[in-house]
Amino acid sequence: MRAPALAASAEPAADVVRPSSGTRSARSVPGSELSSRYRAFMEDLSRRADELSRAADADDVGTVNVRVEEGLAEKINQASKIEGELYKRVDDSIAPNTPVDVSEITGALRSRMDEVAGDMAELSPMERRLVGRFMQKQDDGAGGVTYVDKPKTWSAISGLRKELNAARSGKSTFGDAASYDLNKYGSLVSGTQRRIAETMGFGDDYAAAMKATGIKKSAQEAAEKLLGKQLGESFSVKFDSKVTGLAKGRVKEFQEAVEAIPAGQRQGAVTSFVYDQIIDRRNMDPRANIAKFNAFYNQVQSNPAAKTALYRNLPKQARQDIDALGKITSAVKRANEDKIATGRLVAADESFKLGDRTSCQVPQA
Predict the structure, then answer these.
(1) Is the pLDDT assigned to residue 95 strictly greater than 70?
(2) What is the pTM of this model?
(3) Residue 16 near residue 37 (C-beta atoms within 8 A)
(4) Cα torsion through 170, 172, 176, 180, rounded to 10
(5) Alpha-carbon dihedral of residues 287, 292, 298, 303, nearest 10 degrees?
């Protein structure tokens, strides 16, 4: 059952949040009626913020972290499985020792060697490795050297393609290659193998396998945006920086991060991280963080592009509830700033603190 919407007018009474000089003194006295009423309001606000977050299906960010990371891994694994099955279908149809024409690859390497006047030191590390794989250095009989093409088989070119694909994740001897080289020569090798497959009557199957490789690559790139190049970073840490960065105007970074999340998990992730600005459920802390949420909300509201990017990924009711919480926390923040300015309010006890680091403990109202 959904929690009742939090009306923006559900603020504490005027004498609680916006006290006159007379009531300020009364609220500053531990145990006074106004002090008790203010504490009760803060407890109620925290309780209702938690209820609204649960009604919006907002999870603690630790749960979201596991769910998204598993979702990203599943997309990559599914694409890899389909890719492997399609390539295996082609490999099973062509004898591994079948001689193949790799002149497109050796031609590209010779062009690079000509560009640097045969100075191998000027080639990239990856290019030097490929020259060693495809050519044999020989004495030209005149005191110099020449490079002769090595014979290659279907198995050899398939093995190289797999190595280059694995290198995109740093998992092969080409793992340290520049991304430009990987893309250039990876496409060259795949294109060469596709042409070979076509001449043998398996062009359609190979084209389907290449499409699967593209899908896997897209899944890997999405995961890298959220988990780092080696896919070993924490999603929650990376995405939290994108959410807080959005409030500071970094809209494009936020949008790219959201698009990298599996489609069915985007709204839930954004909703959870927004409510995490006021309720720190990951540390099982039931207190509303007024200052943190107020700063986040005001920054988003002041930037139309940021607000649009955020609200586009929130359920309609959550957008309304977030707005209501924003207005209420603004009123509380103003009261706290008034306390700082006058110096007349003191904490009722260690669990009741006002000011820039506001966090008020909440039982039931």
Answers:
(1) yes
(2) 0.68
(3) yes
(4) -80
(5) -130
CA dihedral 259, 261, 266, 272 (to 10 degrees): -120
- In tens, the pLDDT along 202-226 reads 999 999 999 998 898 899 889 988 9
SS (H, E, C) 56-86: CCCCCHHHHHHHHHHHHHHHHHHHHHHHHHH
Amino acid at 64: V
Q: Provide DSSP, 238-276.
A: HHHHHHHHHHTT-HHHHHHHHHHS-GGGHHHHHHHHHHT
Distances (CA, A) of 185 to 91, 107, 323: 21, 12, 52
Structure tokens that stand for 358 in this block: 């506001």
Please list the helix, strand and coil fractions of the chain in percent, rounded to the nearest 5, in that order.
65, 5, 30
Give residue 116's identity as a one-letter amino acid code. Answer: V
Could you tell me the pLDDT band of residue 262, with boundaries at 50, 70 and 90?
A: very high
